[in-house]
UniProtKB/TrEMBL annotation:
This is DUF4442 domain-containing protein. The keyword Signal does not apply. The keyword Membrane applies. InterPro entries: DUF4442 (IPR027961), HotDog_dom_sf (IPR029069). Keywords: Membrane, Transmembrane, Transmembrane helix. CDD domains: PaaI_thioesterase. The chain crosses the membrane at residues 75-104.
Length: 174
C-alpha cells in the first residue's frame, strides 16, 4: 500500500474524494490502480470496477510465465486477489469512509486449464456480506466471502479462486 493508504482514518481515508451518494467508478478504478505497488510492478491492470464486480487483467508478458510457458500461479493469484479487493471497493462505496481495514485472510485456488496469454480475473462478492458491511457500526468486524474467475483471451475458464476477507469498521470518532 502507498503511504496514502496508511493515512489516519484507515482504509477508507484513501477514498475521501469519492462521493458515496453518487460514486464515480472510473475515479475509484484509478485510485485502486495506484494502491497496490506489486500489482503495478507485475503489470496487473484494473480494467473495470463497478458495484457488482471488478476485473483485473494480466498482460501477456514472458516475465509472468513459468517453466511450462503458461502464466505463473503467483501472477494468477495476484490478479484474482486484486479483482476481489476491487469488487469490495465498488460494492462498499457507501461505507468506504467507515472502513478501518480490509484484508485477505484465506484463499483457495483451483486451476482448470493451462493459462496462456492475457488473463482476465473477474472478482465478485457475496451480496449478503456487503449488506452486512453497509449496515455495520464502529469497531465491528465483518467476514466477506468473494470469488474470482479467471479467463484466457478465448474466454476459457482457467481458474477459480475463493477469497476470505475480513473487514473492520473504524472506531466511532477515529
Amino acid at each position: 500500500m502507498t503511504t496514502e493508504a496508511k493515512a489516519p482514518g484507515g482504509f477508507g481515508a484513501v477514498f475521501a474524494a469519492v462521493d458515496p451518494g453518487n460514486p464515480d467508478y472510473e475515479l475509484l478504478r484509478r485510485i485502486v490502480g495506484r494502491l497496490i505497488p506489486f500489482g503495478s510492478h507485475a503489470g496487473v491492470e484494473v480494467t473495470e470496477l463497478g458495484p457488482d464486480r471488478a476485473i483485473a487483467e494480466i498482460p501477456d508478458e514472458p516475465q509472468l510465465g513459468n517453466h511450462m510457458r503458461t502464466v505463473h500461479a503467483g501472477a494468477l493469484f495476484l490478479a484474482a486477489d486484486i479483482a476481489g479487493a476491487c469488487a469490495f471497493v465498488g460494492a462498499a462505496v457507501p461505507a468506504l469512509g467507515s472502513i478501518g481495514s480490509f484484508v485477505l485472510r484465506d484463499a483457495r485456488i483451483s486451476f482448470r486449464k493451462p493459462a496462456l496469454g492475457r488473463i482476465r480475473a473477474i472478482g465478485m462478492l457475496d451480496p449478503r456480506d456487503i449488506r452486512t458491511v453497509l449496515a455495520a457500526a464502529g469497531d465491528q468486524r465483518v467476514e466477506v466471502d468473494g470469488r474470482a474467475l479467471m479467463y484466457d483471451a478465448n474466454d476459457v475458464l482457467v481458474g477459480k479462486v475463493t477469497l476470505d476477507y475480513v473487514c473492520t469498521m473504524a472506531s466511532e470518532g477515529a
